[in-house]
């Protein structure tokens, strides 16, 4: 498969709906071959998505001093400045130059009395919101609520595609680890291939749901193939498998390398939403993915330990802490 398939949810995000079984089969085919799919026919309101993009643009248009007042902190929340992330953990390229992007990282919200927050557990803390931007937080929170619901449906489809009950993985996402990254990529020179908007990498976690503007620039490298374009499709999401889901499924679902090269001549904005398990989840190859011919390829790992190792190696701010 050398192109990314388009999967239509037909307006449904209920795993008990009659259409869900057929969608799960098509999704499994896509994620076990190329590891990517376009998702359309979802229930994310286009107006809510547009408002979130507009909020992101307003943030990135703010004075640098204002953005830096929300500098990313030990909770991995806040402003990640231009060229301060180098993907040293990439398994698909030797990356020595930082990504040409800046972003605002927003993670799962925690109540003030949340036990994980009070215990000082890794990356459990409050988000940093740009208080100078009226309406920013409501627009983003409305978007998160809708894309999160879509992500949880995708998780159920993944379970069904593996011939497991639709709710088999739900317990891992009762208090999930989530990231919404509001990314801005400046234009780069037409022939610049060395320093990229995002260097070749695979994602850390379970699934990513990417909303991208109409600039293009996302490229995917299927197994055994060369880089192919993943052009924007209006109102569709680009879904991909992360490393943790590939481990979880004993390699049956493919975590595929991808990169961003912004040759549009203008600014590029995207909003990846990462839906991952609770930090304390012990991830080991699912029994449904193991048999005599397919013994476990990966040892068990605690998701939070796996995540922190990657954050500590890839982000400059973690080294300065």
Automatic annotation (TrEMBL):
Molecular function GO terms recorded: 2-oxoglutarate oxygenase/decarboxylase (ethylene-forming) activity; metal ion binding
EC number(s) given by UniProt: 1.13.12.19, 1.14.20.7
Keyword Cell division: no
Pathway recorded for this protein: Alkene biosynthesis; ethylene biosynthesis via 2-oxoglutarate
Sorted UniProt keywords: Ethylene biosynthesis, Iron, Metal-binding, Oxidoreductase
Domain Fe2OG dioxygenase: 176-277
Cofactor(s) needed by this chain: Fe(2+)
Catalytic reaction equation(s): L-arginine + 2-oxoglutarate + O2 = guanidine + L-glutamate 5-semialdehyde + succinate + CO2; 2-oxoglutarate + O2 + 2 H(+) = ethene + 3 CO2 + H2O
GO terms under biological process: ethylene biosynthetic process
InterPro entries noted in UniProt: DIOX_N, IPNS-like_FE2OG_OXY, IPNS-like_sf, Iron_ascorbate_oxido_reductase, Oxoglu/Fe-dep_dioxygenase_dom
One Pfam family recorded for the sequence: DIOX_N
Family to which the UniProt record says this protein belongs: Belongs to the iron/ascorbate-dependent oxidoreductase family.
Stated name of the protein: 2-oxoglutarate-dependent ethylene/succinate-forming enzyme
């Amino acid at each position: 498969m050398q192109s990314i398939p388009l999967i239509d949810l037909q307006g449904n995000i209920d795993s008990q709906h009659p259409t869900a079984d057929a969608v799960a089969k098509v999704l499994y085919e896509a994620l076990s071959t190329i590891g990517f799919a376009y998702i359309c026919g979802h229930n994310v309101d286009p107006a809510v998505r547009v408002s979130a993009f507009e909020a992101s643009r307003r943030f990135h248009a703010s004075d640098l001093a204002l953005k830096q007042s929300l500098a990313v902190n030990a909770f991995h929340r806040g402003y990640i400045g231009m060229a301060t992330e180098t993907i040293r953990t990439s398994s698909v390229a030797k990356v020595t130059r930082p990504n040409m992007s800046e972003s605002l990282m927003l993670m799962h919200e925690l109540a003030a009395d949340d036990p994980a927050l009070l215990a000082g557990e890794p990356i459990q803390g409050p988000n940093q919101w740009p208080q100078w931007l009226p309406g920013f937080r409501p627009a983003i929170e409305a978007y998160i609520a809708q894309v999160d619901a879509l992500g949880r449906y995708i998780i159920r489809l993944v379970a069904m595609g593996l011939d497991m009950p639709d709710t088999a993985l739900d317990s891992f996402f009762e208090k999930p680890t989530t990231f919404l990254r509001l990314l801005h990529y400046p234009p780069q020179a037409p022939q610049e291939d060395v320093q990229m908007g995002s260097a070749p990498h695979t994602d850390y976690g379970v699934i990513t749901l990417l909303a991208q503007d109409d600039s293009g620039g996302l490229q995917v490298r299927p197994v055994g193939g060369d880089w192919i374009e993943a052009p924007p499709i209006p109102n569709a999401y680009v879904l991909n498998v992360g490393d943790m889901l590939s481990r979880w499924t004993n390699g049956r679902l493919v975590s595929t390398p991808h990169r961003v090269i912004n040759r549009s001549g203008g600014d590029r904005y995207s909003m990846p939403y990462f839906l991952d398990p609770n930090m304390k989840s012990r991830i080991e190859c699912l029994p449904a993915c193991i048999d005599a011919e397919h013994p476990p390829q990966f040892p068990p790992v605690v998701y939070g330990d796996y995540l922190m190792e990657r954050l500590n190696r890839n982000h400059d701010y973690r080294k300065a802490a």
